[in-house]
Amino acid sequence: MKKIVIVGGVAGGMSAATRLRRLDASAEIIVLEKSGYVSYANCGLPYYVGGIIEKEDSLLLQTPESLHIRFRLDVRVANEALSINRATKTVLVRNLVTQEEYAINYDKLILSPGASPIRPNIPGSERAMTLRTVEDVERITLAVTDKPKSAVVIGGGFIGVEIAENLIHRGIATSIVEAAPQVLAALDPEMAFFVHSELARNGVDLILDKSVVAIGEKSVELIDGRQIDADLVIMAIGVRPDVDLAKSAGLVIGERGGIDVNEFNQTTDPDIYAIGDAAQKKDALDGTSTLVPLANLANRHGRVVADHILGRDVRVVPTIGTAIVKVFELTIATTGWNEKRLAATSRDYKIIHTHPSSHAGYYPGAEQMSLKLIFDAKSGEIYGAQGVGYEGVDKRIDVIATAIRGGISAPELADLELAYAPPFGSAKDAVNMLGYVAENQISGLIETLQWSEVGGHNLLDVRSKSEFAAGAIPGAINIPVDELRERVSEIPTHDVLVFCYAGQRGHTATLLLNELGVEAKNLDGGYHTWVNSPAVLTQLVTT
Asked: How far is 217 from 390, CA to CA, in rounded Å?
C-alpha cells in the first residue's frame, strides 16, 4: 500500500489526489492545505467581490468532509508543511489551529503549494489587500461592505482588470495603476488599446506607465508625485512560485524561479513531484522552461503525476499558454506567443490582423471582433493568436489553440470545416479567413505592411468618401476601390500603401493596382488596426 502526501489542496493537488484514489482504492492519501479551504474556484473570487456570484458556498467545490465521504481522502486544512527530510522521507507539519508540530512519512510526495502574490517593498504596502485565497476574498468583501468611496488596483494583469471591473459594479470609483504602457502583458500593444477603451468607457481611471511608490492611509503616491484617492487598495502586480519548501529541501529551482521538473513532473528527487503554479512548465513552441499559472494546466499535470506514480503510461504535456479574461462586456483571449516575444528571437514570422463579425452580418446582433495571428513566414507554423471582441472570440481562440496543438498550419485554417448557421458564424468563418489571408501571404500573392510601418509611403485610402471624411491617416489620398480603374493615373506608380477599414477592400485594390502596373502593398488590418495602435492613436485626423 502506497502512502502519498500532497502539499496543497487546490487545483493540481486535488486533481492528483482524486485521480490517485480512482486508480488505487487502497493507497493512503493525505492532503495538507495551510488555508482553511480546499478545492475552491479561485478564478471566481473577483466575481464574488462584485456580487456576480452571490454566495460564497458557490466557490467551494468540495470540503474535507465531502472528499472523505466520496474518496476516503485524509484532507487536513490549516495544516502547513514546514520542511521535508528527503533522507527519512518525512514532512514536518504544523497544525495552525493548535500549533502542534508532527511528522508524516511518505512513499511519494507531491508539491502543489501554488504561488504567492508579489508585494513590493514600499511604504504602506501592508495596507494593500491581495486576492488569492478564500480568506483574501472574505477580507476584501468585508472592506467593500463598508462602502469605500475610492479604490486603487495596483497592476493591470488578469486579476487586476477583473477586480477593477467588480469594484465598479459595487459603485466604487476605481483606478488601475500599471507600471507598463499597457494592461494585460500577454497582448500586443495594438490589441491592448481595445481593452483600454473598454475600461475607460466603464469609468475605470487607467493610469499607465506609472508605478506606486507609497501607500498612505487614504491614498497612494505615484512616482511622479501625484496622490490618488484610495480608501481601498488591491495589490495585483503578479505572483511568484512558492518554492521555499522545495528550496529548503535541496530541490533544484529552475531559471524561471519555479521548481524544476522533468516531463513527468518529477523534481530532482524522483520520489517528489511538483505541479501547478509552483512548478516550471515546458513551452510547446521552443521547449524552454516557462511559468504559466493556469488552473486547467495544473489539473492536467495533477492527473499526469497520479498516473506516473501508479505506473500508467502518460503523455508529455507542454504548454501553449491559452488564456481568456472578461473586461466588462469585452472578451480578451490569447494563445501561444505574442509578437513582443517573437521579436526578441531570430524567427522569421508574419502577422495578420482581421476584424470580422462574430456571425453572419445580415443576421441581427453581429458584433465586430479583432483577431491577430502570428505564424512562420515559410512553413506557416502557428506561433500564437490574440482576440478581442464582444462575442465569438472565445471559440475562435479555442480553435486556433487546438490547431497549434494539432500541428495545423496557418494556411490550413482555411480547410477547417467549422459549424455554420447565420446566428453562429459565417460561411467563411473568421478562422477560415485567417487561413485564406495566411495562404495569400506565404504564397507571395500579396505583400502587406503593419500599422507601425505606415510612414514614408504613398498612402492610398480606398474607402468611401464619407469614411475618409470621418477620419484618415494623415497624408493619404482617397480614391474609392470602385473608382480605381478610371483614376489610376492619379496614383503614383511605386511605393503605394493601400488601406481600407479592415483590410479586405485594400486586398482587392492592391491586387488590381499590381495588375495595372502600380507597385502597391496592403496595410494589414487596415485603418481600424492603425487608428487603435499606440504609436498613432493621437494622430487621428477628423472633421
From this structure: 38
- Which of 260, 281, 309 is at the close of a domain? 309
We report the CATH number of the domain holding residue 209 as: 3.50.50.60
The reported pLDDT for the residue numbered 543 is 26
The Cα 157–Cα 206 span in angstroms is: 13
Same domain for 101 and 247, yes or no, is yes
Here the cell at position 392 is 465569438
- Residue 535 has a pLDDT of 59
Summarize pLDDT for 345-365 with one digit per residue, the tens.
999 999 999 999 999 999 999
Verify that 172 and 103 share a domain, yes or no: no
Number of domains in the chain: 4
**Structural domain includes residue 320:** no
User: Which residues have a catalytic role annotated?
Assistant: 43
Grid look-up 485565497 returns 133
Residues lower than pLDDT 50 in the chain: 537-543
Classify residue 378 by burial, with Cβ atoms within 10 Å: 0-12, 13-18, 19+.
exposed
340 and 432 part of one domain:
yes
Running DSSP on this structure, what letter comes out for residue 283?
B
Q: How far is CA 214 from the centre of its chain?
A: 28
What's the chain's length in residues? 543
- In a domain, residue 322? The reply is no
Q: In 3D, which of 389, 322, 312, 384 has the Cα closest to residue 349? A: 384
Q: Which stretch of DSSP H or E encloses residue 219?
A: strand 219-222
**Residue of 155, 154, 159 lying closest to 326 (CA atoms):** 159
For strand 108-111 and strand 272-274, is the pairing parallel, antiparallel, or unpaired? parallel
* Distance (Å) of CA 214 to CA 68, 232, 313, 497: 46, 14, 53, 48
Task: State residue 316's pLDDT score.
Answer: 85
Distance separating alpha carbons of residues 106 and 209, to the nearest angstrom: 49
What pLDDT sits at residue 57? 84
Q: Which residue has the cell 526578441?
A: 344
Query: Residues 298, 403: one domain?
Result: no
Helix (H, G, I), strand (E, B) or coil at 489: helix
- Give the global pTM: 0.92
Do 81 and 98 sit in the same domain of this protein? Answer: yes
